[in-house]
């Protein structure tokens, strides 16, 4: 397949994806129109924002591909015109291009994609398109390394070094960013290190008029300013130039690990901030904790959101060890309190072997497991915390898709042949708009679980 054919195939795939996302936009708007109240629910607004953002990104991608298509078409037309002139003048025609079986490497200098960004999006954010590009890159590398030679391996003996299976490199396990992925995501303002959100603190009042002609109830409305600080998170690594130039995938491995560490660190910091901003924590004090005794504490935290925020909680966040403890619980006869979707009369539903997403439900609320929740809380430094919250009230600002920026410095330690690489990113978070949207469960009943 020629490069032009490949680009046109990618354009068709882009149009198919755009049609699907546009259908989501249309469906969300149609649902709101049928309701007839002229508003969007928070869930509809989130879905509409995500779909419109995806449509915009697809349009930008397609515009770039169409430009490359037009360029290749123009080159073909110019070649045809030159060959026609050469034929008329008796000059040799332009040599035919050398065909290649595989396409150029996606991650070449001046290419349209970054291996670093795709690795981050694929592994941390679950981007399938990025994963497909990484797979195609792997195929390209395999073809490049397996070019045929007439001589066999045995002819060279010890001259052939062992090949490390770099494609099977075992990356350092990181906890990801389950909490951040569940929040209301907003674009970070382009300027400033602090921005302010007005927040009402004293509301107006309404009361029965005592008698005709008496003054109505009057209380002055008041507000305060909620200041949100833009945070900078980043990490760096010194790498010898020999490792970069003589090694295999060294920079890619380092950048990918830095990106994964960045995601986990920001997630841990902001979930700690959300826990610290809770209106209150329901105390679960128990020397011999059980899931049955935890149950009413969860109900208490949920009802506190309902009773104070006047809107329902939307998610429960807990450490994966806490979810494992819940799924292991049994009643007095040894029957599991936890079940899958096919079992009736159970306390919880879901899957034990899941992580970083909705793993199940408790009291009809989705449960999201996140190993970035601290497990060293409490006097014994062995407690974890359960957060019950309304995620639409927790706001996260990030640049772009949340991936950190990539840095590389060749000169500061140039005399040592050391290259400095790093990542950093700006973000902001607040749970302060509606503090009553979050309540937690904590205490000695949530110490390191026993199984």
Commentary on this structure:
There is one protein chain. With 451 residues, the chain is an alpha/beta fold. The protein has three domains: 1-92; 105-144; 176-191 and 233-451, hypothetical protein PF0899 fold, CATH 3.30.2320. It contains nine helices and 15 strands. Strands 5-15-11-6-10-9-8-7 form an eight-stranded mixed sheet. Strands 1, 4, 12, 13 and 14 form a five-stranded mixed sheet that branches. It has a two-stranded antiparallel ribbon with strand order 2-3. The longest helix is centred in the N-terminal third of the chain and has 48 residues, at 42-89. The chain is globular.
**What does the radius of gyration come to?**
29 Å
* CATH class wording of the largest domain: Alpha Beta
Poorly predicted runs of 5 or more residues:
98-102, 155-161
- SSE order in H/E notation? HHHHHEEEEHHEHEHEEEEEEEEE
Give structural attributes:
single chain, 451 residues, alpha/beta, hypothetical protein PF0899 fold, 5-stranded mixed β-sheet
Question: Would you kindly provide a brief summary of this structure?
Answer:
The chain is of the alpha/beta class and 451 residues long. It is 38% helix and 20% strand.
């Amino acid at each position: 397949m020629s490069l032009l054919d490949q680009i046109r195939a990618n354009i068709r795939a882009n149009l198919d994806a755009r049609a699907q996302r546009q259908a989501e936009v249309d469906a969300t708007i149609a649902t709101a129109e049928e309701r007839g109240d002229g508003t969007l629910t928070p869930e509809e607004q989130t879905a509409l924002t995500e779909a419109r953002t995806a449509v915009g990104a697809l349009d930008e991608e397609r515009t770039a591909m169409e430009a490359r298509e037009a360029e290749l078409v123009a080159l073909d037309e110019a070649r045809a015109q030159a060959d026609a002139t050469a034929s008329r003048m008796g000059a040799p025609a332009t040599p035919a291009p050398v065909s290649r079986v595989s396409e150029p490497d996606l991650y070449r200098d001046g290419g349209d994609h970054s291996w670093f960004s795709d690795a981050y999006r694929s592994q941390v954010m679950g981007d399938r398109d990025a994963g497909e590009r990484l797979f195609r890159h792997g195929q390209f590398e395999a073809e490049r390394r397996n070019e045929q030679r007439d001589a066999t391996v045995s002819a060279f003996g010890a001259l052939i070094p062992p090949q490390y299976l770099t494609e099977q490199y075992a990356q350092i396990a990181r906890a990801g960013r389950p909490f951040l992925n569940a929040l209301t995501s907003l674009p970070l303002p382009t300027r400033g290190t602090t921005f302010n959100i007005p927040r009402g603190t004293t509301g107006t009042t309404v009361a029965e008029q005592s008698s005709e002609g008496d003054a109505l109830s009057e209380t002055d409305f008041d507000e305060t300013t909620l200041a949100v600080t833009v945070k900078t998170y980043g990490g760096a690594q010194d790498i010898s130039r020999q490792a970069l130039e003589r090694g295999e995938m060294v920079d890619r491995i380092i950048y990918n690990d830095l990106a994964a560490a960045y995601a986990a660190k920001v997630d841990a910091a902001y979930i700690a901030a959300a826990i610290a901003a809770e209106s209150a924590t329901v105390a679960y004090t128990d020397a011999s904790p059980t899931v049955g005794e935890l149950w009413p504490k969860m109900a208490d935290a949920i009802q506190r959101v309902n009773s104070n925020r006047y809107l329902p909680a939307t998610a429960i966040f807990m450490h994966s060890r806490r979810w494992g403890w819940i799924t292991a619980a049994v009643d007095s006869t040894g029957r599991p309190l936890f079940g899958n979707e096919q079992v009736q009369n159970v306390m919880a539903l879901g899957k034990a072997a899941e992580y970083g997403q909705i793993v199940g439900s408790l009291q009809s609320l989705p449960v999201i497991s996140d190993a970035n929740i601290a497990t060293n809380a409490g006097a014994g430094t062995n407690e974890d915390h359960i957060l019950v919250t309304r995620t639409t009230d927790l706001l996260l600002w990030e640049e772009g898709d949340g991936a950190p920026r990539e840095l590389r410095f060749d000169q500061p330690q140039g005399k040592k042949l050391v290259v400095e690489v790093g990542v950093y990113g700006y973000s902001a978070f607040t749970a302060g708009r509606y503090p009553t949207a979050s309540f937690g469960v904590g205490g000695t009943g949530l110490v390191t679980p026993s199984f």
